[in-house]
Each structure stands twice: as C-alpha cells, then as structure tokens.
Design a protein that fits this description.
1% of the residues lie in helices and 45% in strands. The chain has 479 residues and is an all-beta fold. The strands form 8 sheets. Strands 1-31-30-29 form a 4-stranded antiparallel β-sheet, with no helix packed on it. It has a 4-stranded antiparallel β-sheet with strand order 2-3-4-5, with no helix packed on it.
Length: 479
C-alpha cells in the first residue's frame, strides 16, 4: 500500500528469560524466505531500499492438494512505499520445506514495467488454480496499476499476466491501492479482485495521494475462465467527495454463493472513529451490490513504542474478515483503542450469524497487557473453531528503550466467537527495531492465516534482531 502515516486517514530483560516466563509456546517456526532475487536491481529510487527485507506476507492452502501451500510477500521493502518486487513461496509437503519464485509484477522481477510492487495477495480455487494480484507503480511518476497472474502448478510458475486497471501518464489524477483477490471456493475458474481507487481533483498528486480533497470508491473485477480474462473494472461502493474505502476483501458463502466485501469506510470529520468497519454484499455473483452497511466504528490510534514514542506502522485501518464455510457465520477483526479509553490499539472482534443483518458488539480478543496489539488475522477451521493471530509488546519492560520485544500470538474460540482463550505464542520475542523503517518500524499491514482441516497455518514476518543486512524473513508455523 502506498499511503501516508497511519492516523492521518487520508489516504532490557534477556529474550530467553522472557520466553521462558510466557504462556504456551511452540517449536521454532520454519524459515520460508531466502536471499533476495532482486539484490542487484537498481530500479525504483529515490528512497532507502532494505535489500533482503521481506514484509507483508499472505498465504493460501490448495483445496485440490492440501499439502500444497502458496504464499506471497514484498521483497526488498522501500522506505517510502512498495518493494523491488513480489515473491511467491510454495511448499508441497505441508509447509516443512519451501522454494520461491518471482511474481511478474515489476521491472526487477522481469515482468511489468513498473518500478515497484506492493500488497501481495494469493487465493486458490477448488481446481487448484492460484490467483495472485499486485499494486504496481512508479516512484518517479504517478504511473500505477492493479495486475493479476495465475499459477496452475502449485505456485512454481506464474502466467496469464493481466493488467486489470492502469492509470499512467499523462493521466495523473488516480491511484489504485490495497487490492486483494478471492477465488470462489465452489466455482472453479471464478475469482474476484477488489481495491480502492483514489481520485484527486487536481493534476499533480505526486506529493500526497491521500489529501483532504479526494474520493476513493471500491472497484471490482472478475474472472470466470481461470484468469485468462478479467471483466472491466466497475465501482461497487460509490462514495462522495472526501470519503474513501480501503482494505477491500471478499469472502464467499459456500452455501448460497453470496459475496461479502469488507472494508474500512473513511469519512469526515477526520479524527477518532473517522473509519467504520463496513461491508457490502452481492447475491448475483458481483453483478449488483447493496449499499454499505456499518458494523462498528474503527477507533484506532497510531501504534508506537510505549517507552520511546517511535512510530510503528501497522494495518491499523485494515479490517480482516472470515466466513465459516459450513454455516456462513461471518467474522471480522480490526485494531481498536475503545477497550482502554483510546490509549493504544488492541484487537476487536465481531460476528454475525444472519448474513450481516446484525453484528455482536465489538469484543477484545487479545490478552490485555497494557501494551499495543496489532495486525490481526482471523480464520475458521473445519470444526468451527475460530482463530485470531496478532502481534503485541507485552514483554517490553518499562525501562527498556533499546529494543522492542515483539511476539506473535494465536487465540481461539470454540463457541462461535462467544469467548476466546487457549492462547499460544507462535513466535518471539524478537526485536521490532531491526525491521525496515517505512513511516515506522514495519512488518506489513497484514499476515497470512489459513486452515487445513482442523489445523491453523500461520504465515508471518519477524525480524532477525541486529542483522541490518537481512532485517526480516517470512516464517511458517502450524501448531
């Protein structure tokens, strides 16, 4: 995502000792990423590029072969937006071993002629066809696009490269942002891409793509032939001036085919609760959509190091949805400060059992620690158990200003989200201050979480503390 600092809206205890004192932990996660394939690429400046730094991972399980997992991430993050390119990781043994290949969305990757790529996403249909999408853009001008590619061999190779939308010079008014793709779980060859398209009223938006004079509707494109062709983009959430959506993501009801697009609806006045967790739905496979329906206010505040005030960039304005494929029950999680009087973000959760007609009041699902929690993901397994994963700073000592110990957690609910417990430490603590700095210490706006039967599979980034030549890596764990 190429946007301004979160909150603008317009868009020492030894680590080993802390680990021993924590709740249930698991063995070391499996390393997924390796040395950067783009290390020699000189395209994309100006800015600081963190070679070998991976951020913002996403992952999907192949329903046609559950031992096949495919993930994607930003490779070589830039300080001022995007990365040298996107990389896909793939496994054919359930995540025990991984290989990687380039996704064809940037010059460095030998694909599209754009200097940078961002917002990796992957989804896999019932026939094993994998769909990946990207925001591809230039730093030297306002050229930008949403693109898609397809893999039919488990992520080993990617073809059918398609540009879903492009806004290139001399058109300077639009920027496409924060796309995702969802394969229909019951219709082979069908997948849906959504994103927001920022529109400025002037002709020179280089300096700031999220200013006070703008609008940003939700866009939609669909393939029905396995990614060979995509429909012309259409607006599915229309907004007036000074409103936008962001974080659009579709889930599909396997029982009746209803599509639900979840997003953050941002509107003035631009202060606390300017964002709303919202959704729209379609009962005719994307031909028509309802008006946006509000679930709750999104009362996020900027995440910082509690001891130093240093900025931490997170997915603070990005809600994450899930659906139970057996029952159609809907779930959504997001960052919210309502549980502590607006002091810091924690993880809010809401659910609907009636197709979104009503939602439960926001509930905190992270363990309260007096420290921020951020970047939640949510999924439902085949037994109906709900898992939420997130990072937090609970192991930060009050006098520690030299490091920022960070953990990655999973908490579960066996009663449809009525209560959460059985907290597991999936990884950490690691020092977040080794992460790339991109408007704050940055691991990404989201992390990957999927299911295989009753198992939850996590795909996330952590730092390599003190290693400034390889600041972060992608890891996999299946507790």
């Amino acid at each position: 995502m190429r946007r301004n600092k979160p909150g603008a809206f317009l868009i020492g205890i030894p680590f080993a000792a802390m680990l021993a004192a924590s709740t249930t932990s698991w063995g070391a996660p499996t390393l997924v990423s390796g040395p950067s394939p783009f290390a020699s690429c000189t395209v994309g400046g100006p800015g600081t590029v963190y070679v070998n730094a991976e951020v913002e991972p996403w992952m999907a399980v192949n329903p046609a072969n559950p031992s096949n997992l495919i993930g994607a991430w930003q490779q070589d993050r830039w300080s001022n937006g995007g990365a040298h390119g996107l990389v896909a990781g793939f496994s054919f043994d359930g995540g025990q071993t991984w290989k990687q290949t380039n996704l064809p969305f940037s010059v460095c990757a030998g694909g599209l002629g754009y200097e940078r790529a961002s917002d990796p996403w992957v989804s896999i249909g019932p026939d094993g066809t994998a769909y990946s999408v990207s925001i591809s853009f230039n730093q030297s001008n306002n050229n930008n696009a949403v693109a898609a590619a397809v893999s039919r061999d488990g992520g080993q190779s990617w073809g059918n490269l398609s540009v879903l939308i492009a806004d290139n010079e001399p058109t300077l008014q639009f920027f496409n942002d924060k796309e995702s793709v969802t394969a229909n779980p019951i219709k082979a060859g069908v997948a849906y891409a959504v994103w927001d398209r920022l529109e400025l009223p002037n002709g020179n938006p280089y300096a700031n793509l999220h200013t006070a004079a703008f609008r940003g509707p939700s866009m939609f494109s669909k393939t029905v032939d396995g990614g060979l062709t995509w429909s012309s983009p259409s607006v599915i959430v229309s907004v007036p001036s000074r409103q936008q959506t962001i974080g659009n993501q579709i889930v599909v009801n396997s029982q009746d085919g209803t599509l639900y697009d979840f997003f953050d609806l941002i509107s003035p006045p631009f202060k606390k609760s300017a964002g709303k967790v919202a959704f729209t739905k379609s009962t005719d496979d994307g031909a028509t959509w309802t008006k946006p329906q509000i679930i709750a206010g999104l009362e996020t505040v900027p995440v910082t190091d509690p001891n130093t005030g240093e900025a931490v960039r997170t997915g603070d304005i990005i809600p994450e949805p899930a659906i139970d494929p057996a029952t159609g029950q809907l779930y959504v999680v997001w960052q919210d400060s309502r549980f502590n009087g607006g002091q810091y973000d924690e993880i809010a959760f809401s659910t609907s059992t009636n197709g979104g007609a009503s939602w439960t009041a926001p509930m905190r699902v992270n363990t309260p620690s007096g420290r921020p929690a951020f970047n939640p993901s949510v999924r439902v397994n085949s037994a109906g158990t709900v898992a939420v994963t997130y990072y937090d700073f609970r192991d930060l000592a009050a006098d520690n200003k030299s490091t920022l110990p960070t953990n990655y957690w999973q908490t579960t609910s066996t009663n449809g989200g009525g209560s959460f417990g059985s907290e597991l430490r999936l990884s950490g603590p690691f020092d977040l201050k080794t992460a790339p700095v991109a408007e704050g210490f940055f691991l990404g706006d989201y992390s990957g979480l999927d299911t295989r039967g009753n198992a939850f599979l996590s795909f996330f980034v952590q730092t390599n503390p003190g290693n400034t030549s390889n600041r972060t890596d992608v890891f996999f764990v299946a507790p």
